[in-house]
Amino acid sequence: MKSMELEQHKALFLDFVSNFQSDVPLDKENYDLKRDHTFRVLHWAQQITKSVEGECGRSPDCLRATHLGALYHDIGRFPQYRTWKTFADPKSTNHGRLGFRTLKATGFLRDIPEHWRKVIQVAVALHNRREIPPHLPKDMDFALRVVRDADKLDILEVMIAHLAPDAPPNPVVTLGLSNIPEWSDDLLEMLRTGHLGAYTRMRSLHDFRLLMLSWVYDMNFPFTAQCVLQRKNWDDLAQPLPDDPAIRAALAPARAHLEALAQR
């Protein structure tokens, strides 16, 4: 479908991003980070859909809409950062909802049939929601799950790089969290009991690691789990955590869940 041609929308997205420039080094770094993140998420979305090709029963238009959802998923990050100089939603606004409003205002989707336009909009609006709403129509549910998994695959790599001991500090990316040898008992319990961690419980970089490890309970495709294991993302997040019995007890079932998904 011509109105959903990916290359055309890539050009529209890059033109949109060109409006967000800065001579301030940190601001430029953060705008560039989100631009580059977008295209890596698109890549992972394409890889995920390829991994289930022939199994998911989705039409070519559904796959195109899914990929456009990935391309536009973080469009709200740019006005968010310009206004609040943060990527922390609790300190600013929900960037998924802002992305929905921003995308609607651009008119980029105006020529796309209503059904597929809504699929893309849902992927943008809900990609950062803590849990996927039940009973979504099949095309919306599929696109949202792909975008959420693709987003995680890139965020894990980005955050692991920024959490490395020799990484230059960027408090915007690490959400201003302290590098202290402490962790939240609430986050640890969420991980131990198979629940997604809550951003509102984070106080330290160890908490951020625990939260990202809890994402295994919100991964939807075997390909995603396989990548996390093959790229050693799990090890890179888990190994810096203190060697504490409570932490080990929380990690074990989460790792088992990840391995089971990878083998599904």
Automatic annotation (TrEMBL):
Domain named HD/PDEase: residues: 30-165
Family matches, as SUPFAM superfamilies: HD-domain/PDEase-like
InterPro entries in alphabetical order: HD/PDEase_dom, HD_domain
Pfam families: HD
Domain of life: Bacteria
Protein name: HD domain-containing protein
Species assigned in the record: Desulfobaculum bizertense DSM 18034
